[in-house]
Design brief:
11 strands, 11-stranded mixed sheet
Length: about 400
């Protein structure tokens, strides 16, 4: 029986290949949607896991998280810098790190922050040492620089027509361990250097680093100036502060305290949950389209195979005339079609995985967030459902062949 099926498939190899390809592409669409949505959720959740609480000026929660956690360039309103020493002295806070944006180098965002954040992003450095002077920088694991390299910050980006600062050039002193987050692409420098290079400080407390250099003013910077991370009430305005509460209870108390008036406090994971709900709606739409395409493919397969059985009436009649039992004839037709669909499903899973992996690689290259692509146990259920449906579809032409009298088949 198997030899007969293989010989039949070789004889009709072109039609068989087309059937496999149609099934594979339909299945691949559904698999790609499922794997990519899951990869996006896992990757973004891991990226936000390092940050318990983010505090910024009142505004958009989504933009605050996207800018401060995922380093997506966008201007944020500034909050009163006096909040930083207040948080640093709060007994409920393990550490609080300000962050400032606005500059870049070779497409990598330059983020002004403190040694506290560098210490807590990835533990010990992969190499080198943490910055200790105003002209030093620590780079993320994915930044294509080495120790000692010079970094000339550009205001904004080259695509936006940004200009290079001539006041200060940072020098790389260390590299972070990989985190699988957007911070792997970041260049971390002392926040005081970001303030000084944009003319911010005691004389200008509320100027946004992303806008402060529009007049192309130049400010003398001392690259050997030591760090000063003892804050006072004259800290310039800040776009965001990353906060590590000591306990879960402290986290909720801080969130409630700073979630009113001129400030906004958010749990990144909470914001992502709402974004996932939106993604889930999009996923359902795309998955419905994928299922619809698979139903259409199933209908086309059914039509093609029924026609195929009709064209093989003489062959079927000859098999019956030579004594082939109806059960064997049913099995031959059913196995042949089911084998083609099963191969198509397997190829579709492979194509879907490859497509999701490529998309994740592209997204990771743009955002720095690693998107893990992989199958879970629930995907076995999806494959089993497809094969069960294929088994039922394959039974239709098999039943037609089973019920066909040999004399009528030979006359056709």
């Amino acid at each position: 029986m198997i030899r007969f099926i293989l010989a039949d498939l070789r004889r009709f190899w072109l039609g068989s290949a087309v059937l496999v390809l149609i099934v594979a592409l339909a299945v691949a669409l559904g698999v790609t949607v499922t794997l990519q949505e899951r990869a996006l959720r896992l990757g973004s959740a891991r990226a936000a896991d390092k940050f318990d609480l983010v505090i910024g000026a009142a505004g958009s929660e989504n933009q605050l998280v996207l800018s401060s956690v995922f380093l997506q360039a966008a201007p944020l309103p500034l909050m009163d810098g006096g909040l930083l020493p207040k948080l640093a002295a709060d007994p409920r806070v393990a550490w609080a790190a300000p962050i400032g944006f606005g500059d870049s180098f070779m497409g990598n965002p330059i983020v002004g922050t403190t040694t506290a954040l560098v210490h807590n992003l990835a533990g010990e450095l992969a190499e080198g040492k943490i910055f200790a002077k105003e002209g030093e920088a620590v780079i993320g694991a994915g930044v294509a620089l080495k120790q000692g390299d010079e970094i000339k910050p550009m205001h904004g980006s080259a695509q936006e027509g940004g200009h290079t600062h001539s006041e200060l050039a940072y020098h790389v002193t260390g590299r972070l361990k990989p985190t699988g987050t957007a911070w792997d692409r970041a260049i971390l420098v002392p926040i005081q250097a970001v303030w000084h290079i944009h003319g911010m400080g005691h004389h200008d407390d509320h100027e946004d680093p992303a806008e402060a250099h529009d007049e192309h003013e130049h400010h003398a910077i001392d690259p050997d100036a030591p760090l000063n991370e003892t804050w006072d009430d004259e800290v310039p305005g800040l776009p965001a502060i990353l906060v590590k509460p000591k306990t879960i209870a402290d986290a909720y108390k801080l969130r409630q305290q700073y979630r009113a008036g001129a400030t906004l406090a958010v749990f990144p994971a909470e914001v992502l949950t709402r974004l996932y709900a939106t993604l889930g709606d999009a996923k359902r739409v795309l998955f419905a389209i994928a299922v619809g395409s698979q139903v259409l493919v199933a209908a086309a397969l059914l039509l093609v195979t029924v026609m195929h059985v009709g064209q093989r009436r003489r062959q079927i009649g000859a098999l019956r005339a030579f004594g082939a039992p109806r059960g064997a004839l049913f099995a031959i037709v059913w196995l042949e079609l089911f084998a083609l669909v099963a191969i198509g499903v397997a190829v579709g899973f492979g194509i879907g995985y490859a497509a999701a992996a490529v998309i994740s690689e592209v997204v990771a290259g743009d955002s720095g967030v690693v998107m893990p692509v992989g199958f879970l146990r629930e995907d076995i259920g999806f494959a089993a459902a497809l094969l069960t449906f294929a088994a039922s579809i394959a039974s239709v032409p098999a039943i037609l062949a089973y019920r066909q009298p040999p004399a009528a088949a030979l006359r056709g």
